[in-house]
Structures are given as structure tokens and as C-alpha cells.
Fold:
Amino acid sequence: MGARVRGGGAAAHRYGVVMAGGVGSRFWPHSRRRRPKQFLTVQGRYTLLEDTVRRLAGLIPIERTYVVASAEFRRLIRRHLPRLPVENLIVEPAARGTGPCLGLAARVIERRDPDAIMAVFPADHVIAPRAKFERCLRVAFATAETERSLVTFGIKPTGPDTGFGYIEVGVAQRRTRPRVFWVSRFVEKPDETTARRYLRTGRYLWNSGMFVWRVDVLREALEDHAPDIAQALNSLDGAVGPAVAAAARRKFERLRSVPIDVAVMEKSDRVAVVEGDFDWNDVGSWAAMSTIWPVDEQGNAGRGEVLQIDCRDTIASSEGKLIAMVGVEDLVVVESSDAILVCPKSRAQDVRRIVDTLTKRRNRKYL
Amino acid sequence: MGARVRGGGAAAHRYGVVMAGGVGSRFWPHSRRRRPKQFLTVQGRYTLLEDTVRRLAGLIPIERTYVVASAEFRRLIRRHLPRLPVENLIVEPAARGTGPCLGLAARVIERRDPDAIMAVFPADHVIAPRAKFERCLRVAFATAETERSLVTFGIKPTGPDTGFGYIEVGVAQRRTRPRVFWVSRFVEKPDETTARRYLRTGRYLWNSGMFVWRVDVLREALEDHAPDIAQALNSLDGAVGPAVAAAARRKFERLRSVPIDVAVMEKSDRVAVVEGDFDWNDVGSWAAMSTIWPVDEQGNAGRGEVLQIDCRDTIASSEGKLIAMVGVEDLVVVESSDAILVCPKSRAQDVRRIVDTLTKRRNRKYL
Structure:
């Protein structure tokens, strides 16, 4: 567990928590049951998980970075993050959503450092440039510390996207960039008309799923707004750590599955939002690659050996074979070591139907 | 060269000539510079070349079957047709179109058997059922023998295809199936309006590029209508055979490149056409596979491990990897050992643009 920490500058109490438990199927054939998106390299040299940890390094050293995931990914995480201290890998006793998951992470960190402020990041987002991100993170840490508020990162919408929840901003706390607001309310994924209206008002941000809070503030918020989670965590308390005892695991398993937004953020009146002015992409499907990979004049993005003749707005990813395309538009073509995906960009979400079909047919080779 | 043949029943004078010199690029990535279409397996166990020879077996034994091609395919042909007698492989001194090529083949066969009737088949067509084909071939042999005519096979058009030359039929010679007509005229590939008109009249057939004639009749026809070719073949005469001497090769090389249709068929007034009532496909591009391979209820054709979800009229050919497609229409996806082709069916002819581009980039690995 490491020794308890007291005192030191504010920076010494900054902790990072990377959530690496996702099991998405939208990146098939690259993502697999045993290798979800966060373990893929979508750009550059590093996997999304590695990038997420490396992105924090300027503010949070690896010794104060934690990764939380289910037991099955333990080995994969160790392989991708060999420098992560063993005790900084928190194994979820059961997948119960981000509410119980982050409550547990906060307890682990609070036992080490009662003055800790923890910043939470999904392991599968693409963010750049790093300097802008770091500035926002510094402001978020300061806000969480001085205001004792629950801080979330909102992203300035680039379009009426219906795939995200939105945050309506209230009174401004900080007017210089990055701006900070009190949160007026969280809203679920809207329909397109509503999303367009949100965009016009200029008062809505995308809910990015990234948060910063003091660990004691989160504990108190859970006690106030999600007492069942708080109690379960209390009873776990002697047992929290990299591995949780069987009895404690059963308590955790009995919890409802609930996201931290629902458990706490939507209910608390001390929620602040930092307006993230960095480029942010949650890499929701292969279609996202046209905004992550470089594109040619016709909007074609390609990785590996790719030949796009008379094509427009296509995405192609080769694993070794030459992908040669003639006369197609808005198409995704992805080669993996044992499969080839072909679908229109607009159907990129339906890649999960392939996974469903393969599952139904028990064709485990490709799952 | 084998001993000269005289006498025997008419069947003993039947010879087959399979033209295996094609160098098409429309079946990339399966067809390559060194392995054109005729050496590919498009259905069943055998390559198109093997199928072409096997299809003749009921009427023409392998001992009387000849294959004509350029020297570079000699080894490939030997591998695909191990039972073909060595002396039955005729090497074209140079590619000068089907006129000189078939003139040469006729000379080779006439030296063996002056009463020979030779039937000519491109090595890269798909034909079924065999019984119907054999019946037509028997009638064609009989017509070529009794009428001393140049016989061609016409195919009843199934649509206003603009990719074929057409044959206008004249007076009927035989009114029972398969019908035989004197040819009124040959016409080049028409535009679509003309093709539709041809179809309406019911008097036009597709020019299939398959012929039957007595070797002496072809020799005389060449003397009448293409004396330059006849003379070149005369001067070659001592040298014709599997390999042609250097001096003879130079004579052949100086010939104009001309198809047999132009050299002889369009000019002779003794041309008959047998109306082929078998299924015939010249396998002009990957798009042809929807009529050759079995299709599902949505019109999707697939070979190998293929998953077509919510797809319509697609063609997919896997070489080992699972090809999984969602929500696409009229698309061709072909995997080879080192490349993947993706193009709309309607652009299947443009596959050659890939080959052109790779050639320009000197990317010989994929050529």
C-alpha cells in the first residue's frame, strides 16, 4: 500500500487514475475480447493506454498513477505499462460501472494520502496537444483543491453530436482560458434537434468522462448521494488494495451498476467544469480515424500499405497486405492478422453486429 | 511432330486448340503478370485452363489437344497440364493476335494430319453444362467438315452487353437445336442503343471467340484474305513446331498484329455460326462472379470465409482471412496472398488502374 503521505506541496498530492476496464467491440477486427480498444495503437508508437499514462507524466509521475481494470486485463496492463508499480494496479472485484469503480480507487488512494486529489481518465481517448491538456489539468487540480468541488472536463462541441452526454454551464468561476464554470446540469445524449439547439446557445459542453476531485470530497459526495456505494466501500475498507478478499468481492458484486455521473455528479451542487480547449476524440468507432489520421486531399485516411485510387473520404488500415481501393466513397476497410472488415463509415457502429454474429455462431477464433 | 495421320473415322481427325496466351490484369490481385486469369481457379477444383481442356475430353483426347501460348507460360502450362504431350504445346514466336497465332497452330496440326479439323477455345471461359457444349461442338465439327466452312460459336445474348462483338445470322443451315446459320456479318462492340436494337431483332449472337474449321480450309482462307500471314507461315513451314528457329521468329515478329476475326472471318463468305445454347461466361472481371458463384437471397456471392451482414449484391473472395462486411452494396472485396482489392462492381474493369499505378511506381512485388 505504500506509506501514508502528509504535507508537501500541492503537486505532491496529485494522483492519476486511468480506467482501463472497457470491453468495446467497435474496433473489431483489431479489438478482441482479450484485447479491447485501450490496448490498441491507433496512432504513433503507443497504445491508447500507454498514451494516456504518458500524457500525465508532466504533472503526475508514474508512482502516483493508478490503473483500474478487471482481473482479466492484469497481465496485458503489466505488459503495456512495465514501469507501473505493482500496487498501483487496482483490480475491480466486479464490473459495476464507474460509480463503484472510482469510489474504490478513491479509497485506495485516500489510505495512502488523505490529502490526495485524483484525476480520472478513460484509457481510450486521443488528446492533443499535450501543452493545452496540461494547462487544463493544472486548472482542474487547483479548482478541485481550492473550491473542494467535483471537477469535470467539458469539451467545446465541434458539431451536434448525438453520441455524447452534454453539460450545461452555469456561473463562471474563471474567465481566462481555460474557463471554469459551475455546472448548471448534466443532460443525457440528445436527439439531433436538441443537440443543434445546445450548440446554438453556446452554453453546452460535451461530457468527456474525465474528472478531478479530492478523494475525501468524493467520499463525502458518495456518502450524501450514493450511500449504498459508500457503505459497501466502508465495509471493504480493510480489504481494499490490488486484490480484494472474497467476502469483500461479494459485497462489491451486490452493488448496482451505476456511472459516477448518475451516482454523484448529477446530484451534487458543487460540480465545476473546466472547458477543455484541446483536441479530444473518444475514438468511438473506426470512422473516428478520419479525424485522427492524416487525410489526403480527397479525405482519404490510410495506415500501412494502402492505395486509394479515385476514392473519397475512405479509411483503410493495412496490417501487411496491400489494400487497393478503386472508386469507393465513405468506406472503412481494416485488415487485422486474421480478418478483414469492410463497412460504410456511417455503419461503423454496426461492427458490433459482426461480433454478435460470430458470438452466436461460437466462432471464437475471431472474438 | 508425331506421324502423319490419314484415313480413320471423322472423329479421329478432331483436334482441339486452346489459346492460353492472355495477359489480362482485370483479376488482380489474383491474376499477376506471371499468372494471368487462365491459371486461376474461379470455381471448383480446376483452373480455367484445366477446365477448358477437361471439357473437350469427351470428344478430343489429350493427344489431339494443343495449347498455344507465349514462351513465358510454358512452365506454368506444363504444371497445370502434366498429361499434355510435350509436342502439343505450341509456343508463339511473338504475340501477334489470334490471326497469326491460329494460322501457326493450323500449320502445326496440318503437318500431322492434313484432314484435321481443329476447334479453337480461349483458355479462360466458363462453360456449362458439358452435355450441351458437347452437342454444339459435334454439330460444329460436322458443319466444318461437310460444308468446308469456317464455323464460329455464337452465344444467345442474355442482355444488351456492350463488351462483346456481335454476329448477325443469315440463312439457317440447320433448324433443330443447336441451330446453325450462315453468318450475315460480324459487328464490333456496339453502343448500348445499338445493342438493345440487336437484342430486339433476335438475329444477333455474341461473338464468343470459339471456332471450328478444317486446317486446310483455314490455310486457304488465309491465302485469300490475309496473304501476308499465309506467306509468313509458308516460310516458317520447315520450322513450325514447339520451338521456332530464330530466323522464323523474326518473320513472325514482322507480321501485323491482327485477330482472326478481322484477318479471315469477317472477309470470308463461307462462315457459319452454331448457336451455343450452353451457359457461357468470358469471366471479364470480378463482377462476373455473381453469375458464376452461388449467391444468397440478397445476391451476395462469397468464396472462403466470408460474413456478409446486411449486404446486397456483393462479391467477396477470401484467401484465408475472414472477410466481414456490414451494410454494403454492389461491392467487390478480394483477398489474395499479399493484397486486398476493394471496388464497386461497376468499377471492376478499373482494377487495371491499380495495376497501372503499381507499374508506374515500379512496385513489382504486387505485379
